[in-house]
Write a structure and sequence with these properties.
alpha+beta; seven-stranded mixed β-sheet; two-stranded antiparallel ribbon; 10 helices
């Protein structure tokens, strides 16, 4: 039996989602369903939960790194069916970047304004702006902290020395395509799962169920604060040990001395 939109809203409220907040959502709909009206029903529930004074934000990154990004047409299927549905809805704004986020609500324009493609998850990015607002929260629906982009924000704030070579296909002021090469703080994100233990130990993370999915809600500032504390103790705390993961090994090799 499908979970109704009203039931989803009640579950989100019970979890701690409050009207007026800026809510960054990462979700796997396959874990949440069945839901009334499918992905649109879940989006409707999230919009109702944050209310007219709140802002709903979702990742909207490009699937294809080999073509110039177009906010009006480029899909983000790898982000899931909810994110792919969300950016196409009326009233939703999408940032013009291969590392795009989409948003609707009070702060949508501020969240999605132009952001530098060569620092995808820094302070001057959608997740950085959600964090800076003070009312920013991260909601994980059916996914763990491996999907929590705000942890990458913490890595950038900390100035970690590891990273990988990356490139972004964008358009210049005249509309001509161009490629930007840069160094990105990136790696396998499996060890972001450590955040569960650290957040739970300080009662900074609320857990519950929304639809059929396990849900986690945490303030963006708490994510960053705890991650910064752990990075200060061990800069490579989020990397696998050498030889355990090719992505983390690549990031280690690119460490700036």
């Amino acid at each position: 039996m499908s979970c109704s939109v009203d039931e989803l809203v009640r579950a989100l409220r019970a979890l701690g989602v409050e009207p007026g907040c800026t809510l960054v959502v990462h979700t796997a709909f396959s874990q949440v369903r069945p839901v009334e009206d499918g992905p649109r029903g879940l989006i409707a529930a999230l919009q109702r939960a944050v209310g007219d004074s709140g802002t709903l934000v979702m990742p909207s990154m490009a699937d294809d790194d080999d073509a110039p990004f177009d906010a009006r047409t480029t899909p983000c299927l790898q982000m899931g069916v909810v994110a792919q549905t969300f950016w196409q809805l009326p009233g939703v704004l999408r940032s013009d970047s291969p590392h795009a986020f989409a948003a609707c609500g009070r702060a949508a324009e501020a969240i999605t304004r132009a952001h530098p493609p060569d620092v995808p998850h820094g302070l001057d990015s959608p997740v950085g702006r959600a964090y800076a607002r003070g009312d920013g929260h991260v909601l994980l629906l059916g996914v763990g902290h491996h999907a929590n982009t705000t942890i990458h924000l913490a890595e950038n704030i900390a100035g970690v020395r590891y990273g990988v070579a990356a490139r972004a296909h964008v358009r210049d002021a005249s509309g001509a395509p161009k490629i930007i090469s840069y160094r990105e703080v990136d790696h396998c994100c499996e060890r972001f799962a450590q955040m569960d233990e650290w957040l739970d130990a300080r009662a900074l993370q609320r857990r519950g169920r929304v639809g059929a999915a396990e849900a986690r809600l945490v303030a963006s500032r708490d994510v960053v604060s705890i991650a910064l504390e752990q990075i200060a103790a061990d800069e490579k705390v989020f990397l696998h040990a050498a030889g355990k993961c090719s992505e983390c090994d690549e990031a280690r090799r690119a460490t700036v001395r």
